[in-house]
Amino acid sequence: MTDGRPTAAGSAPLWERDAELATVAAALDALCAGRNAPGALLVFRGKAGLGKTALLAETRRMAERRGCSVWSARGAETLRSVPFHVLRQLLQPALLSLPPEDIRDHLGDWHDIAGPALGITEPPGDNADPHYVRDGLVSAVRRIARRTWPLVLLLDDAHWADPETLRWLAAFAERLDDVPVLVVVARRPDRAGGVGARHLDAVAAAAGRPVNDLSALTPGATAGLTRATLGRHADDAFCREVWAVTDGNPYETVELLAKVHDSELEPVESHAGELRALNRAARGGGLVDRLKGLGLEATRFAWAAAILGTGITVDMVARLATMDDDLARACADVLCAARILTRTGPATGTEADTGELEFVHPLIATDVYQSIPSGVCTAMHGVAAQLVNELGRGAAEAARHLLKVHPDEDEELVEQLRQAAREHLAVGAPDAARRCLERALREPPLPEVHAHVLYELGCATLLTNPAVSIDQLRSALGMPGLDGDDRVDAVVRLSQALLHNDQLEEAVRTVEAEAARHAAGPVRLRLQAFQFMWEGIHGETVAPARSRRLAELASTCTGRDNAERALLILRAFDAMTHGESADAVVDLCDRALVNGRLAPGLGWTDPEWGMELLMMLGSAYAYADRLDRAESLFSEARRVYTSAGWRGVHLSLANAFLGLAYRRQGRLPDAEATLREAVRLAERVGRRLPLYWSATCGLVDTLLARGRVEEAWSVAEQYGFAPPYPSTIVLPDIRSVRGRLLLAVGRTAEGIGELEAAEKTAASRGGHNPVLAPWSVDLARALAGTDPARAAQLAADARKQAERFGTDTAIGEALRCAAALETGQRAVRLAARAVAYLEASPCQYEHAAARVEYGIAAGSAAELARGLELARLCGADGLADRARKALAGARGPR
C-alpha cells in the first residue's frame, strides 16, 4: 500500500495489504459480535515470500487486541509424513496446559477417539477407523471452539500440512456455520499435489468467499520500503532496480535491503548494479555459500536443525550434530545474527537452555535441507531416529527419520517400522502406516518376516482401499513365512477384500483352494463356511446343488463351536432366500446363538469371521418376521462399530441393515434417516461397491413406500442405482426395487423387463422368498391389464411360495396381490383375508396398505380411517393421501 503504509521495514510484507487486512478485521468483528456468530474461513494464497506469514502474524495481533484466543500451526515440507502433525501443533499447547479432567471435558464424548490422534491420550488398542477419527476431531474442535470463544485458528503453509490434518481441515471447513470460530489458512498455489490438493480445493470451496490471492509489491511500494529501510536519500534508479531484482517479492526485498544495509552500500544509481549479486546470496546457492561462510560448525548446526524440522532446541541440535553445548549455543547465536534462525521460546543462556529455534522463513529451511549432502542427510536422519527412541517418544515419531534411511537389511529397523505402523493405525492414520510398511519392505525384511510385513500392509488398507489390500495379501500368500492360523487368517482377509471390491467369484475360489489344502477338521470347516458364505451372497448364479451340500453339512452341526454356528447361520440364510419354512429358518438361527446372544468370538468386531455372517443372521430373522431380533442385532452392530470407531464399510452396512429392519417394521422415517446415513458413509469408501448398493437400494425402497416417487427417482439418478448391478446379493432385492421404481415413474416396459430379469434369477437359484424378492407380486400387478392370464398365474405361484414359507407377512402380501387382480366380492374377501394376516404381522406398512385397499374394495369408511391412521403412524405420506381421497367418497359409518 502507498497511503497509510507501514513506516517500519519490519512491516514490509504488509505493504499494499489494505484489502486483506480489511477482510480480516471484518471477520474478527463478526466473530466477536457474540457467541452465536457463525464461523468464518479465510484463505490467503500466494507464492513464496509474498507475505502470507506476516499477514497471519498481523491477524494474531488484531485478534489478541480484541480479546480472542489465537492458536496457530504451520506445515513443514520435511514433516508431511507425520500424521496429524499440524493439527497437534494447533491444539496440543492449549489442551496440555489443562488438568486431565478439563481435557476430557473439552473433548467431551470424543475424548477417547480424538485424544490419541492429538497425541494427548493413549490409543485404546485396536485400529481406529480414519473416517471416525476425522469425524471425532471435527466434533471435538467444534466443541472446543464453543468453549473457547472467541477463538481464531491460524494455519500457515497449509500446502505442506500432513494429509491427515488436511482431511480434518476439509471436513471442519464444511461445518463452520454454527461454530463461533475464525479459521485463517495461508498456502501456496502450486505446491500441494494429489490428495492434498483436493483437500485444499475443498477448503477453498467451503470458504464461501473468493480466495485472497496475494500480489507482489508495486514499484511505488518497493521504493517506499527501500527508503523506509535505507533512508530517504535512496534515489529513484536504485529503488527501481530493487524492484526489478526482487520482482516485488516482499521477503526477497526485505532480505536484499538488509544486505544492502549490512554492506553499507549507498542506495544510489551508481551502486544499483551490485544488487543482483547481493540478492543471489539470499536464496538457493547463494544462501548455501553464505552459510558455509559462517563456518563448518554453524553449517553443521543448521543442517541438524533442518533435519529436526520442529522442536528445534540447542540441546537436541547439539546431540544430533555431535557438538558440545557451548559450541552449539555459539552456533545458534551466529545463525540468528545471520537471519537464518530465530528464537521462538525463552533462551536462558544456561547449560540447560531449552529455548526453541525455528528458521526465519520456510524458504530458508528448504534451501538448507536440500543443501545437506545425501550421505550426511541419511546418516543424520538415522541418528535423529535413535535420539527420538532414547527420549522415549515412540516408534511413530521416529518413523519420519527412519523413512529417510537407506535400505541396509537392518532387522531392527524393520521391527521399528512395523511398530510405527501399528501406532499409526491405532490413531487412525492408515496411509502413514502404509508408508512405514512399504519402507520396511525395501530394507528388506528377513525371509521369515517378509510375508508377515506384506500381510500387515494388506490389513492396513483393508477398511479404506480393498483393491490395494488384495495385491498385498496375494503377495504375502505367495511366499513362505505365513503358516498355520496366520495363513488362514490372511486367506480370509483376502477373500473379504475381494468381496468388498466386487470380485466375488475370486473370493469364492480363494477360500475353496485353501480349504482343499487342509484335512477334515476345524480349519477346513471354517474355510468351507466362508466358501458357502460368499457363494450364498452371490446375486445371480447360486446353484440348487450348492444348497443341498450346505443342508447336508449343516444337518450334522449342533452348534458346539463357531464353525458349526457359522454353518447353521449360512443354512438359515440360504433357506430364507429360497423361501423354505420360516419356522425352520428361525430354529437354525436360534441354534447358532448361545443363550440368545452371539457366541464369544462371533461378535461384530471379532476378526475371525467378519461382519458378513452376522448380517446374514440378522437378515434371516428380518425376512422370517422376527424383526425384533433383527433390530436388536443391527442396533448392536451400529453401537459396537460406533464405539470402536469403525466408520467405513462396517458402520455403513450396520446402518443399511438397521434401516432394512426399520423399513420392514413400517418405521419409515427412522428407516429413511438411517439409510441416508448409510449412503453418506458408503460414499467415503467408494461407489459401485456392494455396500453402496445395499444402502442406496434400501433408501429407494423406503422412499417409494413413503410415496415420494420423484425423490426416489432423484436418489436413483444421483447414486447410479441402475445396471450393471454388483455380483453380490443386495437386500432388499435390487431388481424388484428397481422394477417397482420404473413402474412408479411410468416407465412400464422397462419396469416389467427388470421384474422378468428377477424372475430368471430366481429360477436359476432354484426358488425365491416372495417377501425378500417380491418381483412376482409386482409383476402380476403390472401385467394385470395386458396379460391377465399370466398375472393370475404369477399371483397363484406367489401364494404357493408364501404358504410354503409360512409367515403372516408373506401370505398377507400374496393375498393383497390376488385381491388386486379381482373385482367385486371376491376382491373384498381376499382383501379381508390379507388384512387378517398382516394385522398379525410385524410389518406395519404392509398392514396399513392392506387396510386401505380393503377399505377401497369394500367402500368402508371405518377401514379407510383405520388405514389412514396406520399410514400416518408409519410415515407413509402417499398411502395416507390415497386413504384420504378414498375416505372422502366412501360409504358407511365414519
UniProtKB/TrEMBL annotation:
InterPro entries to which the protein is assigned, alphabetical: AAA_16, P-loop_NTPase, TPR-like_helical_dom_sf, TPR_rpt
Keywords noted in UniProt: ATP-binding, Nucleotide-binding
Example GO molecular function: ATP binding
Pfam families per the UniProt record, alphabetical: AAA_16
Claim: Coiled coil is one of the keywords in the record: no
Keyword Cell wall biogenesis/degradation: no
Record-annotated Orc1-like AAA ATPase domain positions: 15-184
Protein name, entry field: ATP-binding protein
